[in-house]
Amino acid sequence: MTALAVAEAVAAGERSARSVLEEHLDRIAGREPEIHAFNWVMAAEARAAAAEIDAAVARGEAPGPLAGVPVAVKDNLCTRDAPTTCSSRILEGWRPPYDATAVQRLRAAGAVIVGKTNLDEFAMGSSTEGSAFGPTRNPHDPSRVPGGSSGGSAAAVAAGFAPLALGSDTGGSVRQPAALCGVVGLKPTYGSVSRYGLVAFASSLDQIGPIAASVADAAALFRVISGPDPLDSTCFDPAALAAGNPTAEGQNGEDRPGVPEGVEGLRIGVLAELCGGLAGNGPGVEGVAADVAARTDEAVTALEAAGAAVEAVSVPSVRLGLSAYYLIAPAEASSNLARYDGVRYGLRVEGATAAEMNVNTRTAGFGAEVKRRIMLGTYVLSAGYYDAFYAKALRARALIRRELDEAYERFDLLVCPTAPTTAFELGAKTADLLSMYLNDVCTIPSNLAGHPAISVPFGAGDDGLPVGVQVMGPAGAEHPAGRSPLWRAAAALERAAAP
What we know:
Layout: H1 3-11, H2 17-35, E1 38-41, H3 43-58, E2 70-74, H4 101-108, E3 112-117, H5 151-158, E4 164-168, H6 175-181, E5 184-187, E6 208-212, H7 215-225, H8 238-242, E7 267-271, H9 290-305, E8 309-313, H10 321-336, H11 354-365, H12 368-380, H13 386-410, E9 413-417, H14 433-437, H15 444-449, E10 453-460, E11 466-472, H16 485-497
Parallel strand pairs: 2-3, 2-4, 7-8, 7-9
Antiparallel strand pairs: 1-3, 4-6, 5-6, 5-10, 9-11, 10-11
């Protein structure tokens, strides 16, 4: 059953939240030892939550739009009833005294949180092999990675452990694992979902997003978690942006009944630099495999057949995205992760002096990739290198945003691959950092610009593993959930990909 079908059945009393939960816990018990999607399975807490929902239904109360729906939550979102570790030894066993705003909204909507999912340590990675607690495996082929850093969340949905999951997306960490696991993943407009309670990696890039088995389910989850929050000063009402978008239907977060579905009349640009390049305007980005490019071409053809006006478009600056990201994100990480010093909370490894204790704690607590990014970020912010590296990266980011905004003056949406390849084998790229970083080459531009983008499964590669196609839009293009151009195009792709 879809998440929406589960919620409808529970609210109507046709299914109990407890029976739905037990089905999913049985699936977790069957495959979790093989997949390792979770750091913590919260069976007792989930059963208590399900019992409360069933009691509310019995009293005739409205149980919420996600009544009884099991949801997996990435382990960098604070939960008051379970540890939040970011898959790092430095936070092993830490229990926050509060819920993240997105988690609070899940509970208020009647969702049942089944566990905290594995991730690359502090969300720094593209394969979920960088977890201090071991890698997650792809449910379609356990010898392959699920993508990252939200690999545990994507794997949980793909394996049927939960119909819905929350991830976080700093450079593609919702969309890339969604593509590799064959599920739907949205990176919302920056600020449309509160980051309160999300453990920070790169604060100007981080965004919480939904992962689901269907476009409609992802839209339902986005509707629940989005909206302004006084606890996050960067958070706003996405209706304010959508109000100026003539292609966005509805207002105040509500879908207007009777709005026709489909993509007829939408102007969709095929982003050339992420699809192999455009003749006379330079090459595309490196690494997009032929089978992924072929599925993307088929998706574009399907959108055109459904009534969209499709045309190639060049945004040359997106070729700078990977380089700019790997200067900006580590710089912000070096600041955000300075708080893990052995003094206030988390791991503490004693030393003869306070400075030695700090060094011992961070040496033992952080993994190799986290240390690498902290050192890189500290370097590019240091005297003598700030202007040469960090300031140039900020200018590149501004250029990417400006050129994308110009493209959205001509097009409602842009289309490209989500990930350059299908899921690769565990261990295949851990020794080749550039190859690993290239996994996010198609997703990073939307993070740098703060724009929304969604990955939708569209067929399989030559190896039989899922391929994801990415639909990108201007700020606010995902509002209102389910009716905006972004969701309409995603739903059209989903229908076209259906067997």
